[in-house]
């Protein structure tokens, strides 16, 4: 799958994320552009320019749109918070008790035409099972914040699997996630079997899974790139928060190109995933056998 070309132009992060959120909520209701513009008292062209990130609405404009759409509660709070931000190429969302970054990432996913997800050490976010997501967070965060991060991770895993997949999804998994799992072997084996189900060519899905060899010069930082109607938005998860970046120089397009060149092909990747799932299953059986009967 070849990702769509950049269309972000002079768009900034605040305008782009607002455009994604406004279109996502409008289409969920659902309202056409003309009908919503009439209710708000603006022209369809102006509303379209906001949804495309060409122009940036004021917080008052955003509040009017949300009111017309009947958006309340946490979602309203989140979108109005974004509307208050100053324009920049990067915005950071989320805090303890308010995982707004996860909700925005899911809005990006729901409006994207294609998605690329990469992690050098773990199975990437978009294909994690809730059990694997929980185990990852417990293994990588201090005990004091682990409970909140686990809740965030489980929310992300559950929501990413629950909505209908419309976008093409290209997932790049670092080989080290298979050879040196950071979480419980039984949980990792279950996660790898889930990947194999998704990689089955007989399934009518738009997902490709490629394993990237350890020696490859891929990015050291995990990221998800959403090719949306406002242009490519790159998301970086940071546990309790996450950042969203507009990459006007297409630096991350170059990273994705390098990953695609160095990665194993989907069939080779599936075979490698199956090999390591079987290895983990065998190791678990040997460990049980070695433990002997309980006394």
TrEMBL record:
Highest taxon of source: Bacteria
Name of protein: Helix-turn-helix transcriptional regulator
Organism listed in the record: Amycolatopsis rubida
InterPro entries on file: Cro/C1-type_HTH, DUF5753, Lambda_DNA-bd_dom_sf
Domain HTH cro/C1-type: 22-75
Pfam families the UniProt entry points to: DUF5753, HTH_31
